[in-house]
Amino acid sequence: MLLLGIFLLTADAFAQERSKRAQSTMKFLSVSTNARATGMGTAMTSVESNAAYAMLYNPAALSRLPQNIDMSFGMVNGIDGIDYNMAAIAYRPGDGRYGVFGLNFVMADYGDIDETILSDGQKGYYRLGTFRPHAYTAGLTYSRALTGRFSVGGNLKYIRMDLGAGTSALAPDGSLVRSDYMAETIGFDFGVLYRTGFESL
Length: 201
Fold this sequence. Notes:
- The protein is 10% helix and 46% strand.
- It is mainly beta.
- The protein has a domain of 130 residues.
- The strands form 2 sheets. The chain has a 6-stranded antiparallel beta sheet, with no helix packed on it. Strands 4-5 form a two-stranded antiparallel sheet.
- A hairpin with a 6-residue loop joins strand 4 and strand 5.
- The longest helix has 16 residues.
- The mean pLDDT is 84.
């Protein structure tokens, strides 16, 4: 009992020293923009697809594209003017002897948002105007069937999120100090797909 009490006290002490963790950004990347994928709860990683949108879920699923060219487009109208748009094109040269190549683009438009600062007035804030944050990713895809059952694929993408300019401080002369809030990075996805041959799994 004594050991249990000591353990609980030290666990609480360590918990108080922790800083915020597991923060995330670029959440627009997890929004599904395809009706079929959304209807399946985005459980598309193990589904072999004959459409270009598959590269956004598992690039290996594109390896057995039956036609030489395929295009997919999608749009989600979210709440409060937030829109998500997707475009993907897949190309299979030489009847698939060289694999399948693809281009994809996903964009999130968060609409107009009021920009405010704290104020001593009745409302408690002062409206400076509006800003329109947005984010997008553009990627290249390659997918290939290595055997009759095993496929691999990958995405290389540029990701950018722009929250616009905002007030970051108040200068000594009373003017507002403006800062740009933007982040960009390179990302990649790698996927595999294996047909077990058992009950279509």
